[in-house]
Design goal:
In chain A, 67% of the residues lie in helices and 2% in strands. In chain A, a hairpin with a 2-residue loop joins strand 1 and strand 2. Chain A contains eight helices and two strands. Chain A has helices spanning 7-15, 28-33, 38-61, 71-93, 95-101, 112-122, 127-157, 179-203, and strands spanning 159-160, 163-164. Classes of the chains: A mainly alpha (204), B alpha+beta (229).
Chain lengths: 204, 229
């Protein structure tokens, strides 16, 4: 057990060094689909935070009872429960947002980030470490979504959080809020992140 | 050799029984989570239903009066009474919203649905009090192709339905629409465009008689208000 990362390490790793989107390339379906506006991206990130935190803590609490061949079933069961709670909650209290996000909230059930954290961290470490891991990974996910959404929303609609930031003469690049814009933005940002990481490595 | 033959069936038997025992945690969690979700559903379902209904009620003035007139109407402080009714024709039941102000019938909003290109399309269509013309269209729910079919939601496309007569069924044309019963198709989404028109045509066809009956009934009661009391 000595070689397991501490809670603090788990937290910091999730934010940048092991960023779920830019470094692990996980959870790309919501990353590409909901990042055409900041509000949508942050709602999705919040939903993932809630689901990941709850699932990680629960799995960590029952980690000694898990049987190797039944663990994935239990992960999925736990994740699906919390996703359904989020989905119903959004439909009740953020109806318009729930309509905008459409099927992508229920699809958190099959989001690899969450099942990966349950497997890698929560099923082996204490609830506190698992919670720190969940918050760190979610923060990393939020940063990734927010960075893509900021580029897409500003270039695509000239707005940021629905408020006009670019001058009226800006010809909105509609393609940025359409699916191709997601791939273009993600590809370029991913390239940039890798370039910076590679430079850091050679310098260090 | 003999011993191994003897034990094999027994081993199998016990491992079968063990499946349930091994899965005790799965079963326990499933029951627990199931109960929790049932509780959530029970407590949130009325709120979600109310959200859906509110969205519809919100749209009714605009669908009957038009966006501009609906705003003036609201600013003038007059109140629109919206009354939800269920009308059954044949096998289909429609939710119909009757809008009236100061005992005067203003029009009707019909909630209708049907198959689109990708999935079910749900829409609201407003008609005037004589069921002679369409006064507005709003898409409540759709999962058409983003960028093509989902343009049925845009105000620009929906606007052309306003003032269309209801006597003749609407037809979708790919060229410029010039006849009063023609609707311009969305480029690359003829099926979605046609689906919306079909839903409107069918619901108007089904509901014309019930709506006319209801309108006459309203007229009579408002002429003779004592009878309603």
């Amino acid at each position: 057990m000595a070689d397991q990362p501490t809670a603090f390490e788990r937290f910091t790793q999730g934010v940048l060094p092991e960023n779920p989107v830019y470094r692990q390339l996980l959870g790309l379906c919501p990353t590409l689909a909901v990042t055409n506006s900041m509000q949508g991206a942050l709602t999705m990130a919040g939903a993932v935070l809630f689901v990941l935190l709850c699932a990680n803590v629960i799995i960590s609490l029952i980690r000694d009872l898990l049987k190797p061949h039944l663990r994935i079933v239990i992960f999925t069961l736990t994740i699906a429960t919390f996703v359904t709670i989020v989905d119903r909650f959004l439909a009740a209290y953020m109806y318009q947002m729930s309509k905008n996000l459409g099927p992508y909230i229920p699809l958190i059930i099959v989001n690899c980030i969450i099942i990966c954290r349950c497997e890698v961290c929560a099923s082996k470490q204490s609830p506190f470490t698992a919670a720190a891991d969940a918050v760190g990974q979610s923060l990393g996910f939020t940063l990734a979504l927010a960075s893509i959404a900021a580029v897409r929303e500003i270039l695509g609609t000239g707005m940021f959080f629905g408020i006009r930031v670019l001058p009226e003469m800006w010809p909105d690049w509609v393609i940025m809020v359409l699916p191709p814009g997601a791939f273009l933005t993600f590809g370029l940002l991913l390239g940039a992140v890798n370039w910076v990481a590679a430079r850091k490595k050679t310098e260090g | 050799m003999n011993a191994s033959i003897d034990t094999t069936p027994e081993k199998k038997k016990t491992s079968h029984g063990l499946f349930i025992i091994q899965a005790w945690l799965v079963l326990l969690l499933a029951a627990f989570f199931g109960a929790a979700l049932a509780g959530i559903q029970l407590s949130l379902a009325p709120k979600i239903e109310a959200n859906k209904l509110n969205e519809t009620l919100d749209k009714v003035p605009e669908l009957i009066l038009g966006a501009e007139a609906a705003r003036t109407f609201k600013d003038s402080g007059r109140e629109m009474n919206i009354d939800r009714q269920y009308m059954t024709t044949g096998t289909k039941t429609y939710s119909v919203f009757k809008a009236a102000a100061d005992n005067e019938l203003l029009g009707w909003v019909i909630k209708a649905g049907g198959q689109g290109y990708a999935d079910k399309i749900e829409l609201l269509v407003g008609v005037d009090k004589n069921i002679a013309g369409i006064t507005g269209l709003f898409i409540l729910d759709q999962k058409e192709t983003p960028g093509l079919g989902n343009k049925i939601m845009t105000p620009e496309w929906r606007r052309q339905f306003i003032n269309k007569p209801t006597q003749k069924p609407l037809t979708v044309v790919k060229t410029k629409a010039d006849a009063p019963d023609q609707i311009n198709a969305i480029t690359g989404a003829t099926i979605s465009s046609r689906a919306v028109c079909d839903i409107i045509n069918q619901s108007l066809n089904n509901l014309r008689q019930p709506l006319e009956n209801a309108a006459t009934a309203t007229q009579q009661t408002s002429d003779n208000p004592q009878e309603t009391k």
